[in-house]
Amino acid sequence: MQYRTEHDLLGTLDVPADVYWGIHTQRAKANFVLTGEQVRPSLIRAIALVKKACCLANRELGYLDEAQSNAVVTACDEIAGGGLSDQFPLDALQGGAGTSTNMNLNEVIANRALELRGRARGDGTYLHPLDHINLHQSTNDVYPTALKIAAIFGVRTLSRTIAGLQDAFQQKEREFSGIVTIGRTEMMDAVPITLGAQFGSFAEACARDRWRAFKCEERLRTVTIGGTAVGTGLAAPRGFIFLAIEKLRAVTGLGLTRAENPLDLTANADPCAEVAGILAAHAANQIKIAGDLRLLHSLGEIVLPPVQAGSSMMPGKINPVVAEAAMSAGMQARMHCWLVNETASRGTLQINEFMPLLAHHLLGAIELLTASSRMMADHVEHITACPAVCREHAGRSTTLITAFLPQLGYERAQALVKEFAAGGAGDFRRFLESKLGAECVASVLSPENIMALGYRPPARTD
User: Can you list the residues of the chain whose pLDDT is less than 70?
Assistant: First the structure.
């Protein structure tokens, strides 16, 4: 293998000649051998967009010439489009508030731009990772800004994906609207409802999650680019501070705004913690809904799509594996969100040293919930109902008597339940038909009546 020798504050180091990264990345690659997981590609792409915006601002202000900036912009565009993905080898878990990842981008952009200009990698006299690519920036404004950009794109996708899940549940709500089953509280029979109404409640929970995910963007739009090390803008020209955010809006197409007090948002990561709370709410709903689907499938009232054999020993066994996977994803996402909150609380004074951990888990929660919501939407679309089982479960439940309270009163209703119990097991609905008449029972227990909001008292005649 061929090498080139580079130098930094600590001395010199050999870097493989065929890579675009440089000495700072090479040191970090050796220092942080922890998880085996690399920095999330969405964050890499977002940093490239920030670097492009800063380059454009520096060119307009005369700090970079046209040839330099054109090469830098091309390199940034390649990375933002997913190119050079093998040039970002760093472990997601790092010390230093993201400096290693920022330097990785600086070095790759510089060396790719040098190549585009027909120059050798490492020729810092023409394009230097720090003097040109990182000009008027700090990790402490670049990295949090890029994280918010990546998160905005992520929550937009998540919101659309949850909308797809909501649509799938609403379709089943309509499809199952005429199927009467028994509601359950405390894992015991409660009052009759329709199977469609149960799926409607899942749809409503998803609707709230979709709206909350959509509104997350408002919490993420305020960024600190131009604030440099601690938010004061030290060592950056005033013109750059105001121009960089304009360029960033143009480059990303997002409604970003410059922080009124960059010192605050450099030191405090609570907007990310707030977003994590919203993500955790969706995870909680996903766990609950998937658990309910699994239970309804076990009860035989619905059939979850069979997707794979369930046992290596028991022939013919099929398990609700997609629902279980969704529950697993929800639990994992909640742990991601917990770590976002934990890292947000661990910053000290003017910086949060644990931004790489925060970024990895915030984006991880978004990506995982997006994938699991998409998986669930596809699965729900193919759920079928078992009307006969639903009728059987509803018909044998003595809690059906609750629907007749307005006509019978509590004492008579209770007496009928006792009479039925004394006669042994059977179908309670048929028992009621024998006592109250089939027409009365059919009317009271119709899907329309049991799902009506309350009942209509008879008109007064006095």
Answer: 458-462
